[in-house]
Amino acid sequence: MSELLQEKINVKDSLQKQLLDATIMMVDDEPLNMEVVKTFLEEIGYHKFVLVEKSTQALKILEETNPDILLLDLIMPDVSGFDILTAVRELQKYEFLPIIILTSSTDAESKLRALDLGATDFLSKPVDESELGLRVRNTLAAKAYQDQLAYYDPLTKLPNRELFLQRVEWSLKAGTRFKENFAILSIGVNNLSTINASSGPSSGDMVLMKISHRIKRMIRNVDVLTKETYGNTEINLFRTEGSGFSLILNRIDNSENAALVTSRILEVMEKPFQIENTETFISTSIGVAMYPEDGSDAASLLHAAASARDYAKNKSSSMIQFASDAINRAYKQRLSLESRLRNALEREEFVLHYQPKVDITSNFMCGAEVLLRWRTEENKLISPDIFIPIAEETGFIIPIGKWIITEACRMLNVWNEKRSEPFSLNINISVKQLSSEDFLSDILRIISQSHIDPSLLTVEITESLLIENIETKITILQKLKDMGLKISIDDFGTGYSSFNYLRRLPVDELKIDGSFISDLTENDNSHAIISSILYLSRSLGLNTVAEGVETEEQLKLLQMEQCNQYQGYLFSKPLPESELSGLLKK
User: In what order do the strands lie in the sheet with 284-291?
Assistant: First the structure.
């Protein structure tokens, strides 16, 4: 049986279950009448009842319990059925609530008045068991059809944003009254637009349908484990936006239980989807807001969950993030920074600094590593640790990287015109740049226009960049080598793949990560790792550079181990162009 056919069967079964799961509220000043009606309906299969004897409490209990249908007596002391009917219809959210009048009144004028006030149907007391069951079922079925049109997404058949907002309000009232916690999960499908662009909107629709099926199946599995694992948690799924879903976890005990449900969702989302005989992978970000920790009203909770989701999306491809004040502040700061980053290149706010590379034997400066710095219009220096990841995620790193290469090649030409000894530059390249369609042609054009010797330009990539799509990256690196450039592996020793692929990589240089250098003289393990890397490098004929050298003791040990070059504050901090030019003259 196909997944979609099974889902149609599940939808039909779900509708029947939905009708029998309806909450039936009765308001009657005669408790015996309500008990008789309840017994009749229980025999049919209904099991959720709210019985209200005091008509003065009817509206308050109605809003607390949010029933699916109201059975209302007309003639009652203090507050009549007419009064209740009028008050209910004045509430926008109960404008279409089915209300069946149960009355012994045979007065046609009373019935017409009730119809004018918004009654859905009538049943005369004493009620007939068969007629009662038929009227209730048909009324609920009609309500379900209306709800489907007004409150359900036609594609996934999930409740939509309108119903989601109503359920959030209901959860808030229940949480306040019964001191219960609940969680809101905001789920974003990050790459739906890419799927639509590459395979067409129909494939995107199929992905959304399969996502809803998969999450609903996961929820059904969780329902089986509910009492053991999640207490009495009730899980409701909604499609609230084009590529977004939301969940409400009612009666959640704590954030740990919310994390368990959320991690299960992320786990099932990471498995590939079969779309038209093609495996399709999606990237999912989930933000979680807890009541009452992250907000005491709907607007605060929804904002917290959405901010946490966006924070997760910007931090990683598939991730869970809980909301907090700190996250919201960080998110707003990020949006502001991203907006300013878009214009930083045009405003000429970027500058290059240069970290000297020094021959370890002669202490002669033979090159430098190019480092990007951002000084805003307000003369505020933004740390690269903050803005580089944002530039990577947004794709701004591609035009910024092109500017870095152009500017570095210009200075390389200037400096080598005045020197007898060649001076080289190392430029860091990100995974986004390496994967860019125009990367190789841009490099070739810039080198040609700047008239530099390409062998004086070294492209640095981090070891961790090599973990994925290694074959493609080997091809790109080889093309750079064919242009005459050199290749350096930065932060060597901290990744996982380079030892396996080092013989195949067209590499000229290894840079030893500064974390091994910092405790080189105190930690035998760091010393052993560095000795191994240097031995490996010599065996392969590679140049080696130690990063972060700050003391004479570290330098002496590196000299003993026959390292080739070093960088670090022992020789010099990163320098702006003017200061490096002055140092080169000396």
Answer: 234-241, 244-250, 182-189, 284-291, 319-322
Whether 161-323 and 3-150 are alike in CATH topology: the answer is: no
pLDDT at 229: 36
Letter for the amino acid at 273?
F
Question: Is the pLDDT at 498 greater than 90, yes or no?
Answer: no
**Cα separation, 342 vs 349, whole angstroms:** 11
SS3 content of the chain, % helix, strand, coil (to 5): 55, 20, 25
Q: 10 Å Cβ neighbour count for 423?
A: 18
The yes-or-no verdict on residue 224 having pLDDT over 60 is no
* 162-176, 189-203, 388-402: range with lowest mean pLDDT: 189-203
Residue that the structure tokens 């909770």 belong to: 301
In CATH, the number for domain 161-323 is 3.30.70.270
* Per-residue tokens: 212: 């809803």
- 397, amino acid identity: I
Q: Are 343 and 568 in contact (CB under 8 A)?
A: no
Residue 27 has pLDDT above 80, yes or no: yes
- Reading the block at residue 84, the tokens are 């209740």
Cβ neighbours of residue 462 under 8 Å, at least 6 residues apart?
Answer: 428, 489, 490, 491, 495
Q: How far apart are CA 54 and CA 214, in angstroms?
A: 45
Lowest mean pLDDT among 275-284, 364-373, 407-416: 275-284
68: three-class secondary structure by DSSP:
coil
Single-letter code of the amino acid located at 267: E
The pLDDT, as a whole number, for residue 423 is 93
**Residues 515, 3: Cα–Cα separation, whole Å:** 51
Burial 369-401 (b: 16+ CB within 10 A, else e): bbbbbbeeeeeeebeeeebbebbbbeebbbebb
Where in the chain are the domains? Answer: 3-150, 161-323, 341-585
Closest CA to 302 of 168, 212, 172: 168
pLDDT at 222 > cutoff 60? no
- Average pLDDT (138-161) is 84
Phi/psi for 527 (5° steps) reads: -60, -40
Q: Higher confidence at residue 119 or residue 230? A: 119
Extract long-range pairs of 303-311: CB within 8 Å, 24+ residues apart: 303/328, 304/184, 304/328, 305/184, 305/185, 305/186, 305/246, 306/186, 307/331, 308/186, 309/186, 309/187, 309/188, 309/285, 310/188, 310/285, 311/287
What is the CATH code of the structural domain delimited by 341-585?
A: 3.20.20.450
Report, at the CATH architecture level, how domain 3-150 is classified.
Answer: 3-Layer(aba) Sandwich (3.40)
Upper half-sphere CA count for residue 311 (Cβ side, 13 Å): 23
Sequential DSSP letters for 473-534: HHHHHHHHHHTT-EEEEEEETSSSSHHHHTTTS---EEEE-HHHHHTTTT-HHHHHHHHHHH
271 three-class SS: coil
